[in-house]
Design a protein that fits this description.
three-stranded antiparallel beta sheet; 16 helices; binds 3-methyl-2-oxobutanoic acid; eight-stranded parallel beta barrel; 16 strands; 3 domains
Amino acid sequence: MPDKVSIFDTTLRDGEQTPGISLTVDQKLAIARQLDKLGVDVIEAGFPIASKGEKEAVKKIANEGLSATVCGLARVRKEDIDACIDSDVDMVHVFISTSDIQIKYTIKKSKEEILNMAVEAVSYVKDHGLKCLFSAMDATRTDIDYLIRIFKAVEEAKADVINIPDTVGVAIPSYMRYLTSEVVKNVNIPVDVHCHNDFGLAVANTLAAVEAGAREVQVTINGLGERAGNASLEQVVMSLHSLYNVKTNIRTEYLYETSKLVERLTGIRVMPNYPVVGENAFSHESGIHTHGVVQKPDTFEPGVMTPEMVGHKRRIVSGKHAGMHGIEAMLKDMGYRVTKEQLKEITRRVKELGDKGKRVTDADLLAIAEAVIGEVSKAKKIVDLEELAVMTGNRVIPTASVKIRFKDKYLVGAETGVGPVDAAIRAIRSVLKEVEDIKLIEYRLEAITGGSDALAEVIVKLEDSKGNKATTRAAREDIVMASVEAMVTGINRIFLMRED
Ligand code: KIV
Ligand code: ZN
């Protein structure tokens, strides 16, 4: 195995060819910046000949001063390559079909003509002083002798890298290993692979190619791409790092945030059970698993890949499979300390809800815990909201002023924010700062009913400077008031914990 593999990201090219995705210039630029932060070696920014907007996006990315090599895609045609050159890219990725079926039905030229077109295109790119990557499209369905002949010819024309695409995702790992090793034996330039996921084998095929000598892999964030997509960057990179002990330049701690950004901008949701970055990738519900994970996470996680390594979080979730250890850990994280009896009763009610076919959310667990334990009594309130006024509109900066009672003192102050909720939360935190710096570490808003008068449920997670945490909820028709109420309840819980 090599020490290191180069990561060629094609989220902005093949990934954007996912049915239903069309990114604006600014969205493509935002993703490119994030890919650069992530540490990919090459960003395939797009197919400049495809449209005016595409060319503009590629040009902007190429002139953004990124550390990654910026690449543009081109058919083996002068006008396509010129569009790449005009877009100021560092590298041109030229491709042509080489399989019999694609030659017969799409290219309709002789194999000799195709070979000459490939060589001419590579030479044209090199004459312009740019790096050149050559792809033999549908390589895994191409006659091997012809494939090697064309790769040797483009090597002679000074191509920098050659790529073996499994265009329709039909290769199996043993074939990918064999094909790659045959190519590697016959050329002296780096070999790259590009695997599609039609049979769910894209990651396995990519790794098999690395085993056989490929030194660069083409991947996409969230496995986006034509049809069933391409090999997922997250899965390939983490397998290389954690299972093969092969390095890449990827800063893996940014994988989750990159996945989320791409999910948000493309609108393509990541499945919860998606490896590495899916919401359930490090979530545990069953009693047996949570019991183990609470003691030592490696009992029911790979160990060689932790949520911290990929910028994700471990979650214990409640449901009918939950056990007391898991529920206790969740409650502790929410700031509750419960007796054995209370824990038994909370677990019983969670399972009962789960048996009714209901997904037990954090809010449900909170509601059950509050019912069983009994909420902070009025008399025990250390902090109370006396007055709140919020101003918002199209010509004002959202501003909130608050008066808070803390024990027998009144604290008054005002803050601005990006919106009324932000202003109110900032105002509360700011007046309480003279007593304690309470941080808001999570905020979630859900509409329980439909319509503009929907009941809004807010869940907040707070933490003080000593690491005491509290998760609380409130449901109201007024989002600002629901947020403030959840905050005040949480602050009370933290102060009660400190007094204990
Ligand atoms: O799948 C494919 O063959 C491609 C080429 C352009 C490399 O995306
Ligand atoms: Zn492709």
